[in-house]
Amino acid sequence: MKHREVRELMTREVVTVPSSAPFKEVARTLTEHGVSAVPVVDAAGRPLGVISERDLLPKSAGQSDYFRSLPAREAWEEDKAAGTRAEELMSSPPVCARPDWTVAEAARLMEAQGVKRLLVVDGSDVLIGIVSRRDLLRIFLRDDEDIRREIMGEVLGLGAPQNPSAITVTVTDGRVELDGTVGLRSLIPLVERLCRTVDGVVSVTQRLGYSTDDTNPG
């Protein structure tokens, strides 16, 4: 099976700022381009970090009313509030992905790192794109018939040692239903697991029978 890669989903035209960019230029860049974060890059285009709207908020939070005190802030918030250039405001190191990663690989890294986006870099670590959570969710917009054809042709026809004509595959809004009979009982969890790995599949329900129970040694 061929899974969609990050290169197919990423945004290639990425708005960036240099490490020397002043605070107001960063804020202006975010506002004018309608983005919630911007990569900070060096002269060669290699990412050094990311500045999000959250990184800029400590500056605003630091402008308290003269007659009203605010709760004590964390040390990192104090540093961000005092920052005046991109290199002082950014969160680093950046979390990066490669263009040939699958959607599943990118999603796992996002989840593990607790980030909303990944910077995509080439073999020289030069920024070539950015992929967000929303981009990765686009695989679930895949046409049901495309999903069904892949399951019939690649999962049942090639990936699993099973005659595809013995199984009926129905896909509705990404939900896969399998009916029919397999030769060996041990094939049922294999077929179900392979179907779950197909891009765009939301769930798999199987009502499969079997001809031979090869899981019972008796």
Strand-helix topology:
Blueprint: H1 6-9, E1 17-18, H2 23-33, E2 37-41, E3 47-52, H3 53-61, H4 75-82, H5 86-89, E4 96-97, H6 103-113, E5 117-121, E6 127-132, H7 133-136, H8 144-159, E7 167-172, E8 175-184, H9 187-196, E9 203-212
Structure write-up:
Helices cover 35% and strands 24% of the residues. 22% of the residues are buried. The protein starts with 5 loop residues before the first helix and ends in a 6-residue tail after the last strand. The chain has helices at 6-9, 23-33, 53-61, 75-82, 86-89, 103-113, 133-136, 144-159, 187-196, and strands at 17-18, 37-41, 47-52, 96-97, 117-121, 127-132, 167-172, 175-184, 203-212. Strand 4 (96-97), helix 6 (103-113) and strand 5 (117-121) form a beta-alpha-beta unit. The protein has two domains: 6-139, Roll (CBS-domain), CATH 3.10.580; 142-212, Histidine-containing Protein, Chain: A. The chain has nine helices and nine strands. It is elongated. The strands form three sheets. The chain has a three-stranded mixed sheet.
